[in-house]
Amino acid sequence: MITVDQARLPNWAHFVPKLARVDVIQGKVTGPVTDRDASTAPDTKVVKAFEVGGQPGKVHFVYRIGALDGPLYLRVRGTDGNRQAVGLRGAAVDPHGPAMDVPHDADPWRDLWFYTNPIWAVPV
């Protein structure tokens, strides 16, 4: 179960952020990489998106990973939904990721995202 306690107080930009969507990102754990400069994980993608729909306070979501055939990790991210775009690896991997900032026109408060640390799962 995923529980998100939404903001109730204004942030440093003097507004209370509104959560619009929570995504679950999942990827396989494959061991050490051969290219340490690689910045992609080929089997990692958004596997579930939950629309918050303006619910106030704490929101709860359930995502079932099912039986594991190998180790994997999950991350959760959330957005206010103000600026989003198809991810660099395409819509099948990340249909609604963060939009790239425009040079000399990047306002950090225009779109807000959070990411959790990875949650590791191994078969038993």
Strand content: 25-35%
Cα distance spanning the termini? 20 Å
Got a strand count?
9
Structural class: mainly beta
What pattern of helices and strands is seen along the backbone? EEEEEEEEE
If you average the pLDDT, what whole number results? 92
How would a crystallographer describe the biggest sheet? Answer: 5 strands, antiparallel
Number of helices: 0
Unreliable stretches covering 5 or more consecutive residues: none
Silhouette: globular
The percent range for helix content is under 10%
What is the CA-atom radius of gyration, in angstroms?
A: 16 Å
Spell out the blueprint of helices and strands.
Blueprint: E1 2-5, E2 21-28, E3 45-51, E4 58-61, E5 72-79, E6 84-85, E7 97-98, E8 113-115, E9 119-121
Q: Could you explain how this protein is built, in words?
A:
- The chain has no helices and nine strands.
- It is mostly beta strands.
- Strands 2, 3, 5, 8 and 9 form a five-stranded antiparallel β-sheet that branches. Strands 1-4 form a two-stranded antiparallel sheet. The protein has a two-stranded antiparallel ribbon with strand order 6-7.
- The mean pLDDT is 92.
Summarize it.
The chain has 124 residues and is an all-beta fold.
What structural keywords apply?
0% helix, 124 residues, two-stranded antiparallel ribbon, globular, single chain, five-stranded antiparallel sheet, mainly beta
